[in-house]
Amino acid sequence: MGGVSERADPHTPIRAGIPEHGRVPKYYAVKARVEVLIADLGEGGLLPTERELAADFGVARETVRQALRELLIQGRVRRKGRGTVVAEPKLVQPLSTASYTEGVRQQGRVPGRHLVGLERLHADVALAAELRLEAGAPVWHMERVLLADDERVGLESTYLAVARVPHLERDFAPDASFYAFLRERLGVEPTVVDERIETVLATPREALLIGTPPALPMLLLHRSSSDAEGRPLERVRSLYRGDRFSFTVRLSRP
């Protein structure tokens, strides 16, 4: 293959996102060429090495490395051993009152969770206000790694009043669906849910638990839910891998 042109060809995908008067960075042109290769290889296909791609495209290995880094962040490729393969499609999680378990199962994947810790804390002023408790009231904090087909894809922290579930440590299997437990054992489930989404970088501890580089962008969801009687049920902080998740919501005009 020849060297990579620095100017956008209007008939190639390289032009997408480039200003009319702009010059295409070499890494971006390489990225577009690799995206064509990804489409040809299909899911699980092994990409050539950085050295081979650099030779084929006539660019430096650092240019190839930068292109692959962006594709890795976008979830188009993933590392496998010492190589790089075409990644499977992202998990598409609906924003709804449904649980993580239900969303993953709908996509034909096997959900799972690994307990990091379950502890009793005293609610600070902000948490107490959200759960309508007195400051200092006992609350559960449950932290779990989220799995999909045994792949670590997120980290979830759940807070709820001890008064609502006094024996959570005894009655709940931490690898199971918490919403199913609330519904089947206590007869309650979230009816009204407020969620806020933002992009963040994981802390070193979070990155270690999820098994990702600290520089990988994450999707952070803040969820507060109430039961059918309007009583606060939980506050949840969920961190999802940006390269493995996207979210959807269906809106309709009343």
TrEMBL record:
<dbReference type="Pfam" id="PF00392">
    <property type="entry name" value="GntR"/>
</dbReference>
<dbReference type="InterPro" id="IPR028978">
    <property type="entry name" value="Chorismate_lyase_/UTRA_dom_sf"/>
</dbReference>
<keyword id="KW-0238">DNA-binding</keyword>
<dbReference type="InterPro" id="IPR000524">
    <property type="entry name" value="Tscrpt_reg_HTH_GntR"/>
</dbReference>
<feature type="domain" description="HTH gntR-type">
    <location>
        <begin position="22"/>
        <end position="89"/>
    </location>
</feature>
<dbReference type="InterPro" id="IPR036390">
    <property type="entry name" value="WH_DNA-bd_sf"/>
</dbReference>
<keyword id="KW-0804">Transcription</keyword>
<dbReference type="InterPro" id="IPR036388">
    <property type="entry name" value="WH-like_DNA-bd_sf"/>
</dbReference>
<protein>
    <submittedName>
        <fullName>GntR family transcriptional regulator</fullName>
    </submittedName>
</protein>
<dbReference type="InterPro" id="IPR011663">
    <property type="entry name" value="UTRA"/>
</dbReference>
<dbReference type="InterPro" id="IPR050679">
    <property type="entry name" value="Bact_HTH_transcr_reg"/>
</dbReference>
<dbReference type="Pfam" id="PF07702">
    <property type="entry name" value="UTRA"/>
</dbReference>
<keyword id="KW-0805">Transcription regulation</keyword>
